[in-house]
Automatic annotation (TrEMBL):
This is Divergent PAP2 family protein. The chain crosses the membrane at residues 6-25, 132-150. The lineage of its organism: Bacteria, Bacillati, Bacillota, Bacilli, Bacillales. Pfam families: DUF212. Keywords: Membrane, Transmembrane, Transmembrane helix. It comes from Niallia hominis. The keyword Transmembrane applies.
């Protein structure tokens, strides 16, 4: 498999793993389920694309089409992670609050009504800018380490 893919996947996995201790330091509660959830610090989206972009830059060089593609698509992913997806998460907070308000209003009326309770929408979808930055910083570090680990050693022949 392509070494760049390994570097990006390791970076994504590391970002997902780090969400657990970071959450613990903030809340004093362990939540192992965060490994499989979106949102939070650091952004695994940012970590993945920035590690791949860093790896490509170091492996192939800045003037290559590989680097250009990775950089542009990475910037789009990071913008989306903290822009559109964040707004969706904030809208979800409002919808969940509205559902609780409707439940409170309905309890005051004496009407026979059987309603199936939908699942509460996931509120943590996107990222704050600092979470995107944290993921990008983690990704650059892992991309650099990935490049160092996959770098071919030059052998010097002495006579």
């Amino acid at each position: 498999m392509n070494k760049g893919i390994y570097v990006a996947l390791i970076s994504i996995g590391m970002a997902q793993f780090l969400k657990i201790p970071i959450h613990f330091f903030k809340t004093k509660k362990w939540d192992k389920g965060l490994f499989f959830q979106t949102g939070g610090m650091p952004s695994s989206h940012s970590a993945g694309v920035s590690s791949l972009t860093t790896f490509i830059a170091l492996k192939r060089g800045l003037p290559t089409i590989d680097f250009a593609l990775s950089l542009i698509f990475g910037l789009i992913v990071m913008y989306d992670a903290q822009g559109i997806r964040r707004q969706t998460g904030e809208l979800t907070l409002k919808v969940n609050d509205l559902g609780e308000l409707v439940d409170k209003i309905n309890t005051d009326k004496n009407i026979a009504f059987k309603e199936q309770q939908p699942k509460k929408l996931k509120e943590m979808l996107g990222h704050q800018p600092q979470e995107v930055f944290g993921g990008a910083l983690l990704g650059v570090c892992i991309g650099f380490l990935g490049h160092l680990c996959t770098k071919k050693k030059k052998t010097i022949i002495r006579r």
